[in-house]
Amino acid sequence: MALTVPDADVLYRALLPELSSLPTKRARVRLEKSEDSRMLLEVEAEDLVALRAVVNTYLRWISSARRCLEVLEHFY
């Protein structure tokens, strides 16, 4: 899954600490950021349930971070 977002660097740095504490041991996640505002989230899972859990978790974290940025942009 590749996301192109204006704040890819901020989102990337917000998600980095989460890589060390995945919600399940049955999945692995790799996160990369390119210079052209693209963020790559690669998920490998042993089964469909683990895949769904990890993808939903990361999408919620991304959504929450983007909402925080939208609120904060009114102050800066």
Describe the protein in words:
A hairpin with a 4-residue loop joins strand 2 (27-33) and strand 3 (38-45). The longest helix is centred in the C-terminal third of the chain and has 25 residues, at 48-72. The chain is elongated, with a radius of gyration of 13 Å. It is α+β, with helices and mostly antiparallel strands and 76 residues long. Strands 1-3-2 form a three-stranded antiparallel beta sheet. The chain has a single domain (2-72), classed as TATA-Binding Protein, CATH 3.30.310.50. It has helices at residues 8-15, 48-72, and strands at 2-4, 27-33, 38-45.
Mean pLDDT: 86
Strand-pairing-aware structural class: alpha+beta
Please count the helical segments.
Answer: 2
CATH architecture: 2-Layer Sandwich
The level-1 CATH class: Alpha Beta
By DSSP, the count of extended strands is 3
Oligomeric nature of the chains: single chain
- Tally of structural domains: 1
